[in-house]
Amino acid sequence: AATRYDSVATTGIKFLTTISRSSKYALFAGPNVLNMVCENIILPNMRMRDEDVELFEDNPVEYMRLDVEGSDAETRRHGAVELIRGLNTHYEGQVTEIFSKYVSVLLAEYGQDPVNKWKTKDAAIYLVTALGWKTGTAAGGATTTSGLVSVVDFFTSHILPEILSAAEAPGNVTSPVLRGNALKYIMTFRNQLPSAQYQITLDVCCKLMTSNVVVIRSYAALVVEKLFGMTEKIPTQQGVVRTPKVPQKLVVEMLPKLLAPLFQLIAPGVAENEYAMKCTARTIVRADKEFHVHAETALRQLCSLIEAVSRNPGNPSFNHYLFEAVAAVINTAPEKIELYQTLVVPMLQELLSKEVLEFAPYALQILAKIMALYSARQMQLPDFFRQLAKTLLAPPLWDRSGFVPGMVKFLQGYIRLDSEYILASNTLDPILGVFQKLIASKANDHHGMALVRTIIETYDLSTMRNYNVNILRILMTRLQTARTSKFVELLIIFLAAFTIRYGPDTLAGGMDELQQHLLAMVLTQVWAKACLTTPATGPSRRLLSVALTTILCTERFTTEPYAAVWADVLTANIALLEGIEVDAVDEDRDPLLEEDAATQTGYNVAYSQLANAKEAWEKDLVRDVEPHAYLATRLAAFTVSHPGVFTAVIQAKLEEKPKEALQRYLAATRSELK
């Protein structure tokens, strides 16, 4: 078929696909209509064309982009696959019966002349893929398959023999397009692959990574990465958790076979292969602490690769996975801090000094991670970190949006680890200047809040007494001039942390310096209302609740105007507590990265969070506090000093549901209000 008619053909196929999924699907029910569509439209467009083979050979990177990333949506073959899936919506049995015959014919034809008839088996693989797939995603593979097609039997009988044959002579793979599509079949139906087949599939892929064909070695690495990344949901008493399907023991056993070909694929001077780089990062993550014996070898290769790539950064995805791999190695062997000091830190320092803009956000994240290792071992920070911190406080740097998250993470760690030096060197003022700049930006206010929260969690009240009023002024000014729902949530969480850290009287006193009784207004007009609608996470809800309980049980609330808002604050607190009860267990995320995060970076030096360099610098201030019991016991103790006063307020102003909830908390702790 001439390529000049492709747009007409794909548009026509899309039209038929739309009808097959619409209320007019009965149009296909006429005599021989399905047969004609299958034979005359779908089947001819399932065969790989000469143009596709040329692309495979001449531009493998573009071929893989179209094939793996689903960018082939406008091709005839993709349209034919979608038409099969559309017809399967209402005619699955008939369509499967029709094409099952053709699959048998195609496979028989291939068996007679495998060398010259490889396109027939390739078409058969595509047909089975289209018939077997029911639901799934391009990134996650098929999640449910057709009950009429055994994708596992097809793998055993027709896919595995192809890749085993290719692995016998990986340096001279025959019918490479067919073998590449066999590997893609494994990617597509990896979730259905029996665990007994993991070992042999991984062994074959290790050999195929040395193939002379770019697509074959790339797909082999991608299969390994996808298999290592598979998880299954396991219900536990704490909720549903995700567990890897390929056990860590098998991953570790594969390391001797796997690392050599992987390191060859990502060696400096070799064309950048993002699939191999992602596989490297995934392998290190899955091997975890067992990878420590390979840490130095891997780091030396990765650092030399970064130095080579930094001369002309080109592939954002490759670069992202490269730094993920470095961070993952550090996770596997945190005790090797001297190695990182001599090997990694100078390399990152060089990147920053040369202003390799694309790599600066990554360098800052990894430096923050290494800095945390010094803290864990109570070691003194090298002077380099202090010099870098001073450099990062230069105002022009904070105008580069892609640098901001990494710089904030670094400063958070620096504040935690070198707090006394910061005071002695008068560095706290410029850090607070950064906070003020970030708070003024709707795009960066969350980074400003993270920074100031680290400050109040690190320094005691005696140090912060001269700064607190100005911090509160900056926050209240932003609330008044540019209020957003995002900022309100950030604000109340910060005020809760401030209350836990320095006490409600310090908060009220600081607010009074701005405006008399300002806290009372903020509690009713901002804090209490936000608690009823906040999407805050479980830990944030606990923090908010404990802070509100602390405020409620303060003598200041026995006088006006605070006494007038006491019931509103209690109602908001109970709403938070009821929300905590139904908070879902947070399922484990992909331990490597958020899918396709790196592909969004482009060349704009946008920030990409390294999944392996996430350091939780915020403290859980109420980790050991059970908020329901805390409210009940604190209220009971508080009302002893004010018998009858607050019980009357509860009876008069609380609705029935909050009253019932409060009674449950009291009964559970055997507490009683006076």
Walk me through the structure:
With 674 residues, the chain is mainly alpha-helical. The protein is 66% helix and 3% strand. It has helices at residues 6-20, 33-42, 50-58, 60-68, 76-112, 118-132, 151-168, 176-188, 198-208, 214-229, 248-265, 274-287, 295-309, 316-332, 337-353, 360-376, 383-392, 404-417, 419-424, 428-439, 445-458, 461-481, 485-502, 504-514, 518-533, 538-552, 562-581, 627-640, 645-653, 656-668; strands spanning 133-137, 141-145, 231-236, 239-244. It has a two-stranded antiparallel ribbon with strand order 1-2. A two-stranded antiparallel sheet has the order 3-4. A hairpin with a 2-residue loop joins strand 3 (231-236) and strand 4 (239-244). Helix 2 (33-42) crosses helix 5 (76-112) and helix 9 packs parallel to helix 11. The longest helix has 37 residues, at 76-112. The relative contact order is 0.05. The model is unreliable at 581-589 and 593-605 (pLDDT under 50).
Percent helix, as a range, is: 55-70%
Q: Give start-end ranges of low-pLDDT stretches.
A: 581-589, 593-605
Mean pLDDT metric: 88
* Strand elements, count: 4
Give the biggest sheet: 2 strands, antiparallel
Total number of helices: 30
Q: What integer value in Å does the Rg equal?
A: 31 Å
Q: Outline, from the CA principal axes?
A: globular
Which strand order spans the largest sheet, edge to edge or round the barrel?
Answer: 1-2
Keywords:
3% strand; two-stranded antiparallel sheet; single chain; mainly alpha; 674 residues
Question: Strands, helices and their partners?
Answer:
Elements: H1 6-20, H2 33-42, H3 50-58, H4 60-68, H5 76-112, H6 118-132, E1 133-137, E2 141-145, H7 151-168, H8 176-188, H9 198-208, H10 214-229, E3 231-236, E4 239-244, H11 248-265, H12 274-287, H13 295-309, H14 316-332, H15 337-353, H16 360-376, H17 383-392, H18 404-417, H19 419-424, H20 428-439, H21 445-458, H22 461-481, H23 485-502, H24 504-514, H25 518-533, H26 538-552, H27 562-581, H28 627-640, H29 645-653, H30 656-668
Antiparallel strand pairs: 1-2, 3-4
Helix pairs in contact: 1-5, 2-5, 3-4, 5-6, 6-8, 7-8, 7-9, 8-10, 9-10, 9-11, 10-12, 11-12, 12-14, 13-14, 13-15, 14-16, 15-16, 16-18, 17-18, 18-21, 20-21, 21-23, 22-24, 23-24, 23-25, 23-26, 25-27, 26-27, 26-28, 28-30
